[in-house]
Amino acid sequence: MCTGRIDPQFILSAYQKGMDGVLICGCHPGDCHYISGNLGAQVRFELLKKTLVQLGLEPERLRLEWISAQESEKLADVVLDMTERVRALDLLDWPDLDYEDNLVDTNLDTIQREVEP
Amino acid sequence: MNKLKLGLYWGAGCGGCEIAFLEIHEKILTLLERVEIVFAPCFIDVKYADLRAMPDGSIDACFYNGAIRNDENEAIARLLRRKSKLLIAYGACAVMGGIPGLANMHTAGEILERIYKTTESTDNPSGILPEPSSSIAEGRDIELAEVRPQAKALRQVVAVDYFMPGCPPTEKQTWRVCEDLVEGRLPLPGSIVGAGERSVCAECPREKRGTKIKAFKRPHEVTPDGETCLLEQGLLCMGPATRSGCEALCPRVNMPCRGCYGPAGREKDQGAQMIGVLGSVIDHDDDGALSAALESVIDPAGTFYRFSLPTSSLGRSRSPARKRRLP
Q1: Residue B51: which CATH number?
Q2: Is A7 in the B-facing interface, judged by CB distances under 8 Å?
Q3: ipTM of the predicted structure?
Q4: Residue A108 contacts B, CB cutoff 8 Å
Q5: Residue B323, domain member (yes or no)
Q6: Which of B29, B65, B156, B241 is 20 to 30 Å from the Cα of B289, by its Cα?
Q7: Same domain assignment for residues B208 and B65
Q8: Identity of the residue in B81, B82, B324 whose CB atom sits nearest the CB atom of A93
Q9: Are residues B93 and B118 both part of a single domain?
Q10: Is A54–B301 a contact, with Cβ atoms under 8 angstroms apart?
Q11: For B189-248, how does the pLDDT look when each residue is reduced to its tens digit (9 = 90+)?
């Protein structure tokens, strides 16, 4: 799909589902079938990355690369390089399910039973 | 006629929600013909002991405002859940974590350290930190609420029946929800009440012209015209990623929306929603222009998640100390 269609929420969902890194590959600027889809994606990527790094995410976990259909070697190199960099990091614990009482119980009955009399 | 029993409580908040509730002004007299306020430490004389003595489920509806920041907030939230038939998260803090939720960008330890030891105006040579329990000269132990590791929204601690966002909820919306409550017209539990379904832009009278911008300015750096979209004038207005219901109070008076009604529509993550919007607002033709635009967003996490960090995808800053090693 066009990188312009990548909603930042997709990337957050990938992390939430247990991915340790997210690589977005798009067409080179100027090559966009939709004229500027990739340029919009670049803005979203950079803003999301800045936000996530501020919140403590390692910058290596999110990457954007322009790779055209002819650049198979570049694709292979980027994937290998990214894999290596992400492997060098710790597992991404997102969300922190093991974090103290972070699990939310929204079942009213259970909660009411839990409360001391 | 049997009056509905109403409770109001403040957790980790600023008190503004209580004031917002009383902003219905003389309509409170009309309300009091139908309801009886049985618990509201801010404006009636009532103690926790009185609340504990009430039978379970005896409060018909309780408006809880403020986040859950310490063990007292949490204990009272649980107690109120048990005593109330309906628990309503009232205001941005109770719904999403709100401004107190920004504390999740640091650990509780870092915050205590900063406030009690290293702020420029602190004079604390012996480095005393507040203790949950301490003995005083008279030989009695005094207890203080203990700060929890993380600020939370109400629904992260107890089940919540209705969510009413806003910092604070507007007077009109408060009155509407009170009327719906006494008339039995509230929607299904779990609903967001006192707010719209679209974005603030839908209620904003400003004109969108499709202008793209190069960089953002801060509100004190520019006097916006009263006609066109604030975002298109270079102000970081959260309107497109914020739920409607306030009638665009802030943009109407030249102030960019701060996002207090939370994510719009069915979105869960307000920051992601806003970043998605900005992709089509910022104009850049080369990487230099892009980095200038990025630099103008000074505090992205604090801006995009100003009211919603605890209930966002990440919930809080990742702390290096809590990382797990590869197996």
Answers
A1: 3.40.50.700
A2: yes
A3: 0.89
A4: yes
A5: no
A6: B241
A7: no
A8: B324
A9: no
A10: yes
A11: 889 999 999 999 999 999 999 999 999 999 999 999 999 999 999 999 999 999 999 999
